[in-house]
Amino acid sequence: MKKRKSFGVKLWLWFLLFSGAIFTVLWLLQTVFLQNFYNGMAIRNVERAVNEMTAHASDSNFYDVIDEIAVSNSLLVFVTDADGNVLYSADEYQRLYGDTMHTDDESDNPYHSDDVMNWEKGALRNLPYSYQTLEKKLDETESDRIGFVTDDDGAYVTGVRLGNGRTLSVSLPLGTVGGTVGILRMQLVWVSVLSLVLCFCLAWIISKRFGKPIKQISHSAKQIAEGNFRPEFPNGFCAELDELSDSLVETAQSLEKAKNAQREFLANVSHDLRTPLTMIKGYAEMVKEISWRDEEKREKDLDIIMRESDRLTAMVNEILEFSAMQADGSVKEYKEIDLSFAVRDVIKQFAPFCEQNGYVMETEIADGVTARANEAEIKRVIYNFIDNAVNHTDNSKKIKVSLTMTDGSARFAVTDYGKGIADEKVPFIWDRYYTSRNRKNKTVVSGLGLSIAKEILTAHKAIFGVDNRLTCTFWFELRNDL
Question: Residue 28 is part of which domain span?
């Protein structure tokens, strides 16, 4: 089987992968896509600026607005008349030259040239070559506005017809980013190298920090598998691992309890089976060697063998039944049953025994009592309660069985008049193999009767218990909404 990577190694690799993806995206944005990103932002900025200029085209301070927008957005702006003469121009350096833009003194005009397209002299700036293309596109379009990127991708130009023969031309260079890409690339090389080293170290620290408690939990869990049900689990790192640790502690406690119950089970089964087996073997040897000729003695010995065989059979059946109930995960069928009939039917099973051994069974069975239950299992509970009372009643051999309807629930109760149960032992009477009182009848002593009853009643969501005052009464109540 291929060995898998540890949690810490995987976390470290994923962290490095994440860091690498981030730096890859950063490189692409800052180098490959920087020009396109800049162009898009610049074009939107130009269009916004043009909208703001045209909104003030009729204002008396129109040229002041152009100056402000041109300077703040690094734009080259021209306003021309119908003949292409420059009425006004502005750029980002407008504030550096102040009022010199209208002078005819060429010494104060750093942009002045008289050999470019023969445009009117006296303006601070001459029209760019893209102006002819702008005029051509404006003439060809039905709209009063046009925007385009020059053929050499060097600038974005927007033209707007303002009315009265005026045209607004706004342009912005797009190639200015190219010079900064090299600087950014070199900067990114150093930033990336340093950041990757930092990420490498940070990923290693985080993976060790996260991996340590998981390794401790894994080690402690292995101790549970080896039989140590009280290992130490780390706490305080994070809520999820604390919950996992708490769950494993509960699991360990449950396994310890189950292991102890298993030992107790084996010990009790061995003890309970050893006694009848020993007696069967002993009396069988006695019959074989001593009493086989004495008919009366032989019959007594054989009766004991048969009695112990019945006792052994009953114990084995109860053990198998209890184990089957705990292992059975099937869904039981619950339906409305005639509980009055079920109780009377179980009582009939005890009639021969009571008549032969002098037991008196008083009954108060209400007619027409129904409940939603599994009839076979509820009969088993009724049988176990009555059998428990028979085994523990006093010398009067009197037992009382009742069935009534109480607040919409069917209540079954069995009372014996024995010595009762010590208060400190009451919580344990439903445990497997627990026998708390002296028995009058020694036929069955497996200690599983009440445990089986508890399993069945719990599955039926019944209320059950024992009243241990003047008499000892075992009871349960079944609802009809199961």
Answer: 1-225
Mean pLDDT of 213-228: 78
Look up residue 261 and give its amino acid: A
3-state SS, residue 88:
strand
Crossing angle of helices 375-392 and 339-357, rounded to 10°: 30
DSSP class of 471 = S
Model-level pTM? 0.44
> CA 160, 166, 170, 171 torsion: positive or negative?
positive
Give the pLDDT confidence of 380-432 residue by residue, as tens digits. Answer: 899 889 988 888 888 889 999 999 988 888 999 999 988 878 777 877 787 76
Say how far apart CA 26 and CA 450 lie, in whole Å.
73
pLDDT given for residue 439 in this prediction: 47
Judgement on whether residues 286 and 147 belong to the same structural domain of the protein: no
Task: Give backbone dihedrals phi and psi of 351, rounded to 5 degrees, phi first.
Answer: -55, -50
Please report the pLDDT score of residue 411 as a whole number.
93
In a domain, 372, yes or no: yes
Torsion from C-alpha of 289, 295, 298, 299, nearest 10 degrees: 170
Beta partners for residue 147, in sequence order: 158
In sequence order, the 6+-apart residues with CB closer than 8 A to the CB of 382 are 342, 343, 346, 412
Structure tokens at 470: 């003047």
Residue 438 has a pLDDT of 46
CATH number at residue 120: 3.30.450.20
Residues in the chain: 482
